Amino acid sequence: MLQNTFKDLRTTIIAFAAFTVLLGLAYPAAITGIAQVVFPGHADGSLVTRDGEVVGSALVGQNFSGAQYFHPRPSAAGADGYDAGASSGSNLGPSSQALADRVAADVARIREEEGLPADAEIPVDAVTASASGLDPHISPAYADLQVARVARERGLSEDVVRDLVQKYTDGSTLWLLGEPRVNVLKLNLALDEM
Amino acid sequence: MTIFGVLHILLFFFVVLALTKPLGAYMHAVFEGEGILSKKVFGPVERVIFRVFFVDAKVEMDWKRYALSMIMFSAVSMLAVYTILRAQGDLPLNPQDLPGTTPHLAFNTAASFTSNTNWQSYGGETTMSYFSQMVALTVQNFVSAAVGIAVVLVLIRGFTRKSTSDLGNFWVDLTRCTLWILLPMSSILALLLVSQGVIQNFDSYKEITTVEGAKQIFAMGPAASQIAIKQLGTNGGGFFNANSAVPFENPTPFSNFLEAVSIILIPAGLTYTFGKMVGSTRQGWAVFAAMSVIFLAGTFFVYNAEQTGNPTLDDLGVSQSYETGDLASSGGNMEGKEIRFGIADSAIWAVSTTGASNGSVNSMHDSYTPLGGLIPMFNMHLGEVVFGGVGSGLYGMLVFAIISVFIAGLMIGRTPEYLGKKIGPKEMKLAGIYFLTTSAMMLLLTAVAVSVDQGKVGPLNAGAHGYSEILYAFTSAGANNGSAFGGLTANTEFYNTALGISMLVCRFVPMIAILALAGALANKQKVPTTAGTLPTDSPLFVGFLVGVVIIVGGLTFFPALTLGPIVEHFLVNAGILS
Amino acid sequence: MSVQMPNAPEYREGRSEIAKQRQARASIWNWPIILQATIDSVKKLNPLHLLGNPVMLVVEIGALVTTVLWLDIAFGDRAEGGFFTAAVSVWLWFTVLFANFAEAMAEGRGKAQANTLRAMKRDTMARRDRDGRIEEVPSSELRIGDIVRVEAGEIIPGDGDVIEGVAYVSEAAITGESAPVIKEPGTDIRTSVTGGTTVTSDWLRVRISANPGETFLDRMIALVEGAQRQKTPNEIALNILLATFTIIFLLAVGTVRPFAQYVGGDVTTTALVALLVCLIPTTIGGLLSAIGIAGMDRMVQRNVLAMSGKAVETAGDIDTLLLDKTGTITFGNRLAAEFIPVGDHSEKEIATAALQSSLADETPEGKSIVDLAHRLGYNGVGADPRAELIPFTAETRMSGMALDGHRIMKGAVDAVSKLATNIPADLETVSTRIAMAGGTPLAVVDNAEVLGVIYLKDTVKPGIKAKFEEMRRAGIRTVMITGDNKLTAATIAAEAGVDDFVAEAKPEDKMQLIRDEQALGRLVAMTGDGTNDAPALAQADVGVAMNSGTAAAKEAANMVDLDSDPTKLMDVVAVGKQMLMTRGSLTTFSIANDVSKYFAIIPAMFIGIYPQLDKMNVMRLSTPESAILSAVIFNALIIILLVPLALRGVAYRAAPAADILRGNLLIYGVGGLIAPFIGIKLIDMLLVLLQLD
Fold it and tell me: Which ipTM did the prediction report?
């Protein structure tokens, strides 16, 4: 019995060391090697450049508060939101007074910003913080709500802006996976391009 | 509920169903060393490895030696993780110069990852160097999963073998599982994820200037390789703080689908492996069916609750209705959810990850509606048997089957038997230990935490929901799940220590009970099947098993849940906030 | 040819008075027993008694705690909640009392039986033979090896073996069987006598085989009294499960207070105790030991003495039933099936002759010949007082009668042939054919003329096929074992509908067969009576010895059938199954009950903190106090309501396992979910009506 235990202890140490080298070093290194060769852009964060400068990632949301831009969802990542080095949701519960207060404030703000009547319904994603705080998308409904303002601010016709929104709207993958969504960064960059 | 959501849930389920048999058969071939691949490719490699390991693959262990090997291996693992995390500042691959962690965080994290819980009191991108993520955590993502599978293999052998104490060789099981199942599957998944945009690099964090001129820092790192195994091994510890909600971990609906399927893929496949090993795939499908019933019921329940939304928001002028077309909106309770996943994908994930002891999240459970958040907690209260953790889910369900067989067996007037093994006092004792350990740790530690000041300061939310946050934390630790009501500030000495102890006790005490159970069963004769034998592969038994799981789980935690999510449901509907 | 067996069980006409009394005791409503049980249930409040029953121990502690709380309220300054606490406390005490009552009832029935037995065990004087010198000693001084002489009318002073004499012995005291039995030395089965039985004719010399206190009667008394009742493995396993549930509910209820305090409220200790008691499986916990005792009791009612509860339980698990052909499946006595004429004689001739020769014949064979002749319509001849009976002797191997110069004899073919002057050619063919088919040919001769052959056939007992069919449905395989040749065995096996048979079996083959079956993991039951059955009886998982059997057989077996009816084995199986089914069903019922109790108590308990929880009060119980009290009262009353079920056992029918499970799940699972919702609501309404809410 004791002899077996010593044998197994020796095996424990050898096996643990071997697995550490294989799984902790060789495996990630190999995956990194292949990924960097086959999907270099993806592996590095799908970064988006404008004029040679990286302005963000196609996958990660960022703050837009200017009236000429489409605005993203509220974010709880970092102190000012959209901190891609500190992802986080709000973690406010459904019965949270703080949540209700925040939503009420956002509803009022959006109604004002978009020039909506006081009883206008706001799409839920416009006033709720995403899980990561880095959601790059808004719903087509929320985008539509912002079309008039953006068009007005940029002196564009609403139809032009609406067409652009359409262009940057992704449908469901394979009809069933995911939701229709608008990539805010890509849309705003496209607007700036115009 | 929308037709889109219902179809989506069914699609997900049928994909898992379709993969169960091929994966289960493959795992069976690997574990039994059968098939052309095992003989021609794996066998020769194994021979070299076992020589290096000083292992004679033909020598089998009794349950005690098996348990001791498992414990020694886990102890060494834990020690290594602890050391690496503490010494992180002096180790390489640390572009952000992150310092070593506090002792209690290192203990908590070491306990968490060796126990396959992957509870994270930390945010990955702000705490862990690449070296820690890879060498400490990724390794544990693999081997702790393999340990779980090894233990269930032993239990199955307990059923299939008779009058013996030989239950297999821990090193053989561990190696085969890691090398021929987890590693290849993770490699494939990791690359698929990179194709969707999951990052995989060793760069330092990138600081950029946004379109509006603000600074934005992108956390980087070898994420895909760790995310793949975190999903497949029912680990769930995210590379980044917000886990699989973070776009770099889970960028597209398709990556989400892959990751979600990966959560329950191996646990589901193991039911088929189990059926093959006991010589009746119907027995495996019966277990699969019982898990599926609870899974689907839970998923539809959560989906419905979340799609219905938060009544408070309705009153504030927020539209939570589901829309399609140009004005498409996911509707529902979107606080803590990502647009690209919407409600259905979030509900599927929430139920999968808590049913399967995974614990990764793609949405924030803390912000779920009360009833939507109730199910994830309840899934864990059931003992993580709705597919469950790799290995642990199946052995948990088999213990439930033993309890069910015991009651049902008495009801038909025979000494209860399951898979040809009579269930006697010893088996019941071990099953009792199995259940009591987790229930006791969950309830008692929650009671302690809500009573002491160090515990009371934890919750972000007030009132019933704050209590739910504490209950969820100890439920998650006890169930070795790892998901959280994230509002709880858990990176404190109290929570790290209490949760760490809970994870260790609730992982290893039940595991040892399972191994002892296997030992007791293997020692027994096999009883032949007659018309008087209770059929355990019939819909009737599956229904009974589901009933036992729900009622036992429900009865144990009903009072605790009443003061949390249930009362919160009534409060929210009455418009009372806190 | 088979010999005369006056007391062969299958010819028993009716049961004696004692047997009837025994049946009468099976009724639940026996007032003296109920009275005694009521007294005992108070005595059993002693916590030491409840140590082995964790569920009821928790209830008693709960009762004690609430009593103290009530006293504190009553004698303290607080006015609030006194009545409620007192009411809960009282009903908790009732819960324990009811459980004690169930156990006492079950024990009481056993004790009553023991008293009847003990009455027979009065100390008698024995005539001990010491080297030819006869001395009178009290029976309590007899030791193994002593020789006693017992005369007609005397009680046999102890268990022993007949070494000399032939006598009729009445065993009515033990078996309830009124017809006396012949006892004689050297016959294996008929040699053993039991203390307490009475010699009714002639005398016997008996060698005592058991010391006082160790006799069959002593063991029987101890068994029915349940004095040495040990918990069976299934009972222990169930107890562990119940203890696990109890601990789980202790945790679930014990943590409620800190949880409630965290969210800013509190709950009363009385409510917590009430919740705990309602949740822990008190129904099954309270009835568990009663079920076990009652199971043994039901065996005794069927005149089967089980040496342990484990044996009864094992009987429910039997996979294979090993049955002797002769005496079990067939009447051991061969009966006339056909009259076959030989030579140029007719059936009428042989039938009439056979009838005449048998009219005065009292053996089963003789009677069956008369029966057959009558059935075939040969009624012409009546008994003639002038007929001279020629009895059967071992030398002649034939019997018959002489009348009017006719000497009609019947007997073994070779013996009878010797009387004949002319042996018909077909006599041998016919008798060989009968022998080959497993029958016995009996030649009939009128003076010197062989008329024909009576075909004596081993006859399958009526109804046995249906019993085997029942066994098959319950998944039990029947195997017939016989010394007959394969052909005979196959015929009988097909006729009786057994699943398998072993022909030409030697006594040691039984042992091998049992071992083979056991090696396949099967549990085997068998019956036996001879000394050479003893090893097999011991090897079998359930061995039932016939009371008529030898001491060795009874010693080796784990059950003794006082009726010596080998088909009783099937009853034994049913009782074993019933016992387990009752436990399982009540466990399911108990746990299923908890759902409704949660819905009664939880909203009531927290309503002070969260009035919104009133929505969970689905039964619309009137007040929090009445809700909790109703649940507690229901929880107590259900125990007493289920006592008859616990004592009688859940109905058993032979059916596939899945069917039984479906049925019992419907009644005890679904019923257990629904019934308390109704019961608690009704009690609540009653409380309101009586203004006790």
Answer: 0.95
